[in-house]
Write a structure and sequence with these properties.
Chain A is α/β, with parallel strands linked by helices. Chain A has helices at about 15-30, 40-50, 65-80, 105-130, 145, 155-175, 190-195, 200-205, 215-225, and strands at about 10, 30-35, 55-60, 85-90, 135-140, 180-185, 240. Chain A is globular. Chain B has one domain (about 5-75): ACP-like (Non-ribosomal Peptide Synthetase Peptidyl Carrier Protein, Chain A), CATH 1.10.1200. The chains are: A alpha/beta (about 250), B mainly alpha (about 80).
Chain lengths: ~250, ~80
Amino acid sequence: MYDFLDKVVLITGAARGIGFAIAESFAKAKATVLILDLNQEAIDTAVNRLIDLGGKAAGYMANVTNSKGIEELFARIIQEHGKIDALINNAGVTRDNLMLRMKEEEWDLVLNINLKGAFICSQKVFKHMMKARSGSIINIASVIGIMGNAGQANYAASKGGLIALTKSCAKEFASRNIRVNAVAPGFIETEMTATLSDEIRAEYAKVIPLNQMGSPLDVAKLCMFLASDESTYITGQTIAVDGGLTMH
Amino acid sequence: MDIEAKVKQIVMDKLGVEEAQIVPEANFIEDLRADSLDTVELVMAFEDEFGLTIPDEDQDKLRTVGQAIDYLKGKLG
């Protein structure tokens, strides 16, 4: 459906999970997919899988919280690939704990990777997109950033922050034709949720109007829309992919 | 091309103004209608063109075309 031929799409935290599903969808749509992640082995596996599908892909080992490292890496990517058409800030972690038990390290780690990482990558990519006078930045937030969740104060704060970052960047970058949107997945079937029992799954499904969990592909399809020219008049939005869970 | 001509060219390209408007006393924001993002972009373009780094604290010194030219001459001369 989408054609991203000659488009360069950079996805952070894309070696596994939802990030990889996004990478796979873009690769199938002919994009040049650049995977950023922390583990070289996982990156190689992911890149090889995309190439086996007939896609164009390259991987880079990088930590999104390392400002200087990301700046240098993006400059190298521009040299190697000429441009970055879309950045998808997907890298994220959870360190769940009740407020009373949450350690500062758990707070800092989650805020650093999920929120500061997106700040750094957006700042560094903006420099290049600004010159190109075009680009799409997509922040992978979460319904937890909209609703909050007991035991996830750090994660909720990081994702809520990401939604606010999205709006500020959208306003700041709009005059340069760079759009910034957030995608808020709800309950999505991933390695992380695969371990949940059928009972818990049924409980989740009960509160979702569409009565089932989503797939990583549902998230990927929205990312493709937001990165494509089909959404050129959409910026600063947070769109939930959640089966109706957070409708308002 | 000398520094002055290069600066004028960059200002024309970035701000889409006529060469006649680019006089030394022209203030980027007040006279040439640059927004705050434009001024950052101008500084980045100067950095690229002349192969130098302009520290954030120096950016306030480059408010007019003449100030930019003098600053760059000082750095490069």
